[in-house]
Design goal:
The protein is α/β, with parallel strands linked by helices. The protein is built from 6 helices and 7 strands; from the N terminus they run E-H-E-H-E-H-E-H-E-H-E-E-H. Helices cover 36% and strands 21% of the residues. The longest helix is centred in the C-terminal third of the chain and has 24 residues.
């Protein structure tokens, strides 16, 4: 059975690139962003993957944006929606529509350090390790059921940029492994 994946990304798309370069690449039907300047769009286009942009600035309300995002993703009838650096909270209606089929990556060992500044928060807390988590999205912020985690040591002299780069390396392999297991794809 072929599996259909839609990836949502807001930034440069390094997680997306890892997916595109893996055995999962052919399963990615579309990549959606919330910004017209997202590097993820270039990465997807380079691989011949359809793209769509649902920019909140183009809508008069958050409710209208939420509806448009749901409609854009649902158009591809995905088996799995992957939030790979998508920096927006998904509406309850979106979560309900794709219940059990929408996952997120997070650069910390949840439940520790949820939110947009996880790497900075881990450094500020003085912990000796952090990592990354892949979890199902629910209606909270980084609060859905955890699927898998990978630890990353915090090294002396780490700053936010160096630590985040090492977390991203772990995050890429963890995400590929989790998706492979979830959909039963051959490696």
């Amino acid at each position: 059975m072929a599996h259909r994946i839609v990836v949502l990304a807001s930034g440069s798309g390094t997680l997306l690139q890892a997916l595109l370069d893996s055995h999962l690449g052919p399963l990615i039907l579309a990549v959606g962003t919330d910004r017209g300047d997202a590097g993820a769009l270039v990465r997807a286009t380079t691989h011949g993957v359809a793209t769509f942009i649902v920019d909140p600035a183009d809508f008069s309300s958050r409710t209208d944006w939420d509806s448009a995002l749901l409609e854009a993703v649902a158009a591809d009838d995905p088996d799995l929606v992957v939030s790979a650096g998508f920096m927006r909270i998904l509406a309850p209606e979106f979560v309900a529509e794709f219940s059990g089929r929408v996952i997120n990556t997070h650069p910390a060992l949840l439940p520790n350090f949820p939110g947009a500044h996880a790497v900075r928060d881990a450094l500020a807390a003085g912990v000796h390790e952090t990592g990354c988590t892949v979890h199902y999205i629910d209606n909270g912020v980084d609060s859905g059921p955890i699927i898998a985690q990978m630890k990353v040591a915090i090294k002396p002299g780490d700053d936010e940029a160096t630590l985040h780069e090492r977390i991203k390396v772990a995050e890429r392999s963890l995400l590929i492994n989790v998706i492979t297991e979830l959909i039963g794809a051959d490696k």
